[in-house]
Automatic annotation (TrEMBL):
Residues 332-362 are annotated as: Disordered. This is Putative virion core protein (Lumpy skin disease virus). Residues 351-362 have a biased composition (Low complexity). InterPro entries: SHOCT, SPFH_YdjI. Residues 380-406 form the SHOCT domain.
Amino acid sequence: MGVLRALGDSFSGTLADQWKDIFTAGRFDEHVVVAPGVLQSTNRGRGANVRGSEGVITSGSLIYVPENTAAFIFSGSGIENVISQPGTYEYQNGQQSIFNGGGIGESLFSQMGERLGYGGISGDYKRIAFVNLREIRDIKFGTRGPLMYNDKFYGTDLEIFAYGSFAIKVIDPVRFVRNFVPPNVMSYTFDDPAARSQVLSDFLQSFIVAVNSLSAECRISQLPAKANEIAQCVHSDPANAGTWRERFGFDCVKVSIENIEFSPESRELVKQFSSNKMNVKAYEGVSVEAGNMAAQQKIAQGIQDGGLGEMGGMLFGMNMAQGLGPVGQMPGTPGAGAWPGQPTAASVTNPSSEIAPAEPAASASAVKPQALSLDDQLNAVKKLKELLDAGILSQDEFDAKKKQILGL
């Protein structure tokens, strides 16, 4: 019973495989890198080559090779032939056909006898697959954890997350099929997590190396504009993605950085840094004169609040504040208590004093200032200490004024 069935299958299979075949590439999408050859058996309902055996290619069959693809013909010995140029090719290494010049004896009876020995099927098994030679674009990547980046502008290590995509291109299709595509696979896409995982692992390792190599010259905000430099670093990395051409026959040809963001902790550090910098810049444009004026007002107000009275606090504060300049003056020294542009008491009472001859020393003793009492000295030192604590006076200024007040 089995022999009769095998005989019938041999006869019907041989007749069905006499038709010459037409093969072309299957549909490619953005991430498909290997697609099986598709048999064109019908056209708008017309066509009789619908019962041919799987894995049998008849001599005289046509193979259409589209642009940016390479056709692979596989047989029992592995890769039988590779067609890397677009065009239409005729295959002449298949089974004989009466439609390709073969005789009836060779094309029919010889094949029927061979198939009968295999239980009614052909001993040939050939397949056609097409490899995508264009860029495989928009392969998404993202750092799985925070990436440390030493930003020289901030002067510290910051944690960042990077997101983007990269593109690869098959350069050596034979090496790619032999070393990267799993055996006996006619369809392969980088949408498959198993296919993408190894590529992503190598890429992220090279991406981290490339990004850190730019930390000495680039701020974090400049990294998206350095995508070309990063792609070149990834391409030349001798340990990971840079070995793809040698190992797998494809290269990383483009890197696009879509977003770089801080971790929550680093974002808080940057905000604090920016806030402090703005506070410092707010005082950079203040002139020395304006700063001295503000200090004078604070000194006068502080002494007034300390209990010397409204007029006493005002006058005493003004006299003290005048000593904040580069040449300090104690109350009672020439010019003390006079505002810029105002004449002194001596110049008002005697306008011609500038050209008058010098008076004896006894006349100078008549304008000797009255010395501060002990309580006034202590209160003045106390107020100066408060100004020192508030940051208005420096330590050197405080020490100098204290010596002047105490007469040391």
